Amino acid sequence: MPEKLRYLTSGESHGKALLCIIDGICSGLSISKEDINKDLLRRQKGYGRGSRMKIESDSVQILSGVRWGKTLGSPIALLIENKDWQNWKDIMSSELRDSRLQTPDYRLSVTRPRPGHADLAGAIKYNTHDIRNILERSSARETAARVAVGAVAKKFLSEFNIKVISYVTEIGGIKAQNTEHRTQSTDTFLSLFKKAETSPVRCPDKRAEKKIINKINTAIKRGDSLGGIFEVVATGVPVGLGSYSQGDRRLNARLAYALMGIQAIKGVEIGLGFEMSRRFGSEVMDEIFYRAQSTDNLPISPLTKGGIKEGFSKGEMGGFGFYRKTNNAGGIEGGISNGMPIVLRAAMKPIPTLRTPLSSVDIISKKSFNAAYERSDVCAVPAASVIGEAVAAFVIADSFLEKFGGDSIDEIKRNYEGYLKQISNF
Question: Cα(174)–Cα(179) distance, rounded to whole angstroms?
């Protein structure tokens, strides 16, 4: 997959810290730890989160790549300490363990794989009979590092009036009623996001929010868990990101890849998604129109020419030119952004770690047991939506740099402004 940006994360769930290195960020971008910490805090919120969130208060340390609040153009290294490490120092020590030390702590070795986790497949793959070696890295704790990476990408995109936002549309089969996206403007998406930010389940529908909270309470009483669906929307994305020339350069493919890489995500849709397959083609294609001059009655998102007006970003080219009245395609056609808001939807399965355990088999004795319980969430869909923002922002930032290049923020802005002038005359 072509990349201008790349990153790696490292660290275990109960290890000393999470680390990440971002390579490819231009010089001159303003960034602070506060820019990153605010998204780390958003990831930790959400009704139904587990007790781990009471221990951790994630805060990033910027170790390299930034000087006096500006990126240098060199790799950026970020560190997030695990406060819970103090309770796991012996269990997760990197030092050779003294065989004379004996402890009854069950956490030293885990031999009962949990259904729905990477436990059994991972133990077989990596040839270990201690599942602790698998679950520590496969844990969703790692996503804190990806949120930190995404925060840097969002900061970069904000320089070009591109926003990446999210909200929850469904948990446990209870659906929000005001999130239909096919004819929504940028302002409507931002309004949904603002409402979601004040909701304990990140749902912009207050009626659905109450029902969702009640269902989460039911799951808590049952020792069960719940999954759901969230949407990620990118506004202000200019026409032309991505390419149809190769499968791995298609923007939709890259975004789907990023979302599917989040733990517990089992399905991704773009725009109308699977619903398109149930309708006639005439019902789902976004017809193209053209308006020769600016009027007060603006379409949703014209694609070319000037006349920037409040409520539209430069990328969306509000004013006059080509436009569409619907957005069933979700802002991407032929693997290329078409100037409309990019609308992504991801389905998260229920957390597989249950207080009421499921049947499993001990990998040593081969006897049937109830699966081991690791401290876990009851519902993490609100947190997953924030993670979805992060990974989508990174892909869009990568695609943006692929299109406009440049080693400094000023150079990239010059390139982008030149492109806007080009398409204004199309």
Answer: 13
Q: What is the pLDDT of residues 48-79, one digit of tens each?
A: 876 555 566 899 999 999 999 999 999 999 99
What single letter denotes the amino acid at residue 224? D
In 3D space, the residue among 346, 345, 386, 360 whose CA is nearest the CA of residue 117 turns out to be: 360
For residue 325, what are its two tokens? 């009245």
Per the structure block, which two tokens stand in for 271? Answer: 């725009």
Which residues make beta-bridge pairs with 343?
A: 233
CB atoms within 10 A of CB 302: 26
- With contact defined as beta carbons under 8 Å apart, do 331 and 303 qualify? no
Strand partners, 345: 231, 269
Average pLDDT over every residue of 374-389: 90
Phi, psi of 172 (to 5 degrees): 60, 30
Q: Cβ distance 242 to 329 under 8 Å?
A: no
What are the tens digits of pLDDT across the range 168-184?
Answer: 999 999 999 877 766 67
Alpha helices in 127-205 (DSSP H): 132-138, 143-158, 186-197
Q: Which amino acid type is present at position 217?
A: N
> Which H or E run includes 115?
none
The Cα-based distances of 372 to 224, 342, 397 in angstroms read 14, 41, 40
CA proximity to 47, closest of 207, 171, 205, 150: 171
- Rounded Cα–Cα distance for residues 409 and 400 (Å): 12
Domains of the chain: 6-95+102-283+326-424 (3.60.150.10)
pTM given for the model:
0.91
